[in-house]
Amino acid sequence: MIATAGHVDHGKSALVKALTGTDPDRLPEEKKRQITIDLGFAALNLAAPNGDRIHAGIVDVPGHEDFVRNMIAGVGSIDLALFVVAADDGWMPQSEEHLQILTYLGVQRAVIALTKSDLGRIDVATNQIRERLLGTTFADSPIIPTSIRTGTGIEKLVNTLANQLATSEPQRDICKPRLFIDRVFMLRGIGTVVTGTLTGGSLHRGQQIVVFPSDLDARIRSIQSHGQELQVAQPGMRTAVNLADLSVDRISRGDVVTLPGHGAPTSTLIVRLERSPRLKEDKTVARPLKSGLSMYVHHGASRVAARIRFHENGSLEAGMEKIAHLKFAAPIFAFVGDRFVVRDSSERHTIAGGIVLDADGEKGSLASIVAVDDLYSLVRATVARQGFARRENLLSKSRFSANEISAALTNLQQNGGIIERQDIVADCEFWRKLRAQAIGLIDAAHQENPERGGVDLGELRSALRIQEPAVFESLVADLCGGDFVRKGSVIARASHRPTLSLHLQPVEKRIREALAGQPFDPPSRKVIESDPQARQVVRFFIENGEVTELGLDVLLLRENFERMKSQVAEFISQNGPATVSELRQALGSSRRIMVPLLERLDRDGVTRRVGDKRCLR
Ligand SMILES: Nc1nc2c(ncn2[C@@H]2O[C@H](COP(=O)(O)OP(=O)(O)OP(=O)(O)O)[C@@H](O)[C@H]2O)c(=O)[nH]1
Ligand SMILES: [Mg+2]
Question: Which helix (H) or strand (E) holds 286?
């Protein structure tokens, strides 16, 4: 894709018409005012130097300062800029602003058309443009004088555009297609159509898609590019998609069509914010940006209000860059590595640009600026932010494919200080510390309470302060792959055998005697557990199965519980169904014990209640 750029009235639309035969100004108001207001589109068929056909598209943008917002929506995913400067007018304010916008968005190539060459001094204008481009990405871009009046330079321009496109890298296919919607309209008999420039992957006819940020599901009924019906749209293509099942008023410019499963929109991003040194030429625009400032972020075809926050309350001067948190007024679907443009809250000036460093900036912070093109350092930095990351989310919102991420993880596990455990990817050092801390806590608990089976998992998790359940699950699984075992809701060393410590042995003796003294009618639990030591011993008995708990207040030695059970069964089988009172008398027990005992036997399927009697199952 190509997009025009340049100051108002410098001849962008006229040039597009001369190149393609299509007048990109389609709105009645545009025709009336002879000015471009919104984006226009035209197909451009070129021949590469080797004879191959190139089917390109041109987005024609408005140059007027009131419509910069629309201009930015048009230049988001382009391969080449057709930068227009009129020979009679020379470099003007929106020449400058558009240049900065293209630079912030990382556009790598431009062809400069020196339009209206029939009206101005070509040498003077060319020198001025060269001077303005000095030190920019476009310093060596070709400058071609053109005139639509005389036809000068049009053929040369066509050849130059073809050369540039033929030698530019094809857009990457990472199987994560995103179509930033720049137009939505309704066609009678067809339904809702959205258009944009596709990036990151292909879209297929019939595919199930999702529209963000509103999270609407739909199916692609049909696809077109420049009027041609297609089965598949490839990255880089101007694409129109028919989403018949969505009504047109639910979608607007700035929304994104993507596939499900590559993450969700967020309201916070961590970004590198940068300001062009060229802003210093204008004092008002060059004012430092401070934390707390509200402004507009232009990303893809969207424009969302956001508030900046710098670390340690800093500010950002022209010519500098810094890490910043952006808090958005509405959710935005951005990937790590995406570039964006920042304009002031009155929408008069372009004041900064940036690149997304972390696409879910809610938790943790980034210590330093990451090279977002280097997947290895990106993985390390993303994991380092909290010490770990969910494997399934790890860089799913990035400009790398799932395969590239898997390969990088395999490599980083071998020698990059990263480990993968179940659903978690963690920094080795973070994991080693967490593991050591958990082991320390378990060992300390064994020491302190040798009579207990282990440490309650819930207690361990809160002692370790782990918020993310998946991290804790992976940690437990990791420990249990080694010297630890999980028994129900506790974890212990595999070698741990619960024992009562020496000083508890007198208490043990006392409780055993109390429970054995009146075997079927022992004292209540409240009485037995008279102090913390007694509670420790009771717990030990229960965990070891020496004592059976009935209800809240009854403890029976296991052997006595078994004896009562068989005596109840025997009595009923000899005498038929019996009441609580009959059984109590027969066994020499009390109502306090019998009621919870029989409830337990009902639950265990030994007895069954019929009216106020128990019979056998
Ligand atoms: N003499 C002369 N006039 C031209 C040339 N190219 C464009 N014009 C005239 O310049 C005026 C503006 O042209 P447009 O193509 O609408 O300019 P634009 O850059 O698209 O303007 P905006 O989209 O509003 O920013 C029109 O009257 C054109 O006829 C040229 O090569 N020579
Ligand atoms: Mg125009």
Answer: helix 283-286
Please state, in angstroms and rounded to a whole number, the distance separating the CA atoms of residues 581 and 606.
18
Residues in contact with ligand 1 (CB, 6 Å cut-off)? 8-14, 34-36, 62-64, 115-116, 118-119, 147-149
Res 574 pLDDT > 90: yes
Q: How confident is the model at residue 59, as a pLDDT?
A: 95
Q: Whose CA is nearest to atom 5 of ligand 1?
A: 116
- Cross-strand partners of 451: none
Does the pTM of the predicted model rise above 0.85? no
* Distance of alpha carbon 123 from alpha carbon 426, whole angstroms: 60
Ligand number with the minimum distance to the CA of 14? 1
**Exposed e or buried b per residue across 213-224, where buried means at least 16 C-beta atoms within 10 angstroms of its C-beta:** beebebebbbbb
C-beta separation of 614 from 586 below 8 A: no
Ligand nearest to the CA of 40: 2
Query: What is the widest separation between alpha-carbon atoms in the chain?
Result: 122
Evaluate whether 205 touches 231 at the Cβ level (below 8 Å): yes
Mean of pLDDT values over 33-57 = 92
Instruction: Please name which of 211, 197, 292 lies closest in space to residue 250, comparing C-alpha atoms.
Output: 211
- Tokens representing residue 11 in the block: 């001849």
Protein residue with least CA distance to atom 24, ligand 1: 35
Give the span between the Cα atoms of 291 and 11, in whole angstroms. 40
Tokens representing 294 are 């509200």
Sheet arrangement for strand 424-427: 388-390, 424-427, 418-421
Structure letter (DSSP) for residue 200: B
Region for residue 608 given its phi and psi (left: phi exceeds 0; alpha: psi -120 to 50; beta: otherwise)? beta
168 — phi, psi (to 5°)? Answer: -90, 150
Expressed in angstroms and rounded, the spacing between residue 12 Cα and the centre of ligand 2 is 5
What is the structure's pLDDT at 366? 63
pLDDT above 90 (res 359): no
Calpha distance 541→527 (Å, rounded): 16
Q: Quick check: 236 and 198 in contact, CB under 8 A?
A: yes
- The Cα 197–Cα 387 span in angstroms is 37
**What is the CA(137)–ligand 2 centre distance, in A?**
24
Which protein residue has the closest C-alpha to ligand 1 atom 12? Answer: 9
Distance in Å, CA 67 to ligand 2 centroid? 11
Nearest to 64 by CA among 23, 104, 31, 34: 34
Interval between CA 131 and ligand 1 midpoint (Å):
24
For strand 203-204 and strand 222-225, is the pairing parallel, antiparallel, or unpaired?
Answer: unpaired
- Dist. CA 39–CA 62, nearest whole Å: 7
